[in-house]
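Let's practice the habit of predicting before peeking. Look at the sequence and jot down your guess about where helices and strands might fall. Then scroll down.
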Amino acid sequence: MAKKSNVFGDLRVKTDDELSTQLGELKREAFNLRFQAATNQLEKPSRVREVRRTIAQIKTLQTARTGADKTAVPAKAGK
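Done guessing? Here is the structure:
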């Protein structure tokens, strides 16, 4: 079995701006892929899954980075 490339590792080295740009491009691609699937013009069905996973990985990484910035979570007001 061939070894898969570590896409998540490649995303870690990108800046926040680069991730946001790539996320926008992937969302646009996912939109286009949905239309192609609806009209039975989809050449590579596996691409839909790849795009969805990459979008999820970018969002996870963005959330982790913002969570790292806010290390001190304020406690809820007492009862």
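How did you do? Residues 7-68 form a domain with the Helix Hairpins fold (CATH 1.10.287.310).
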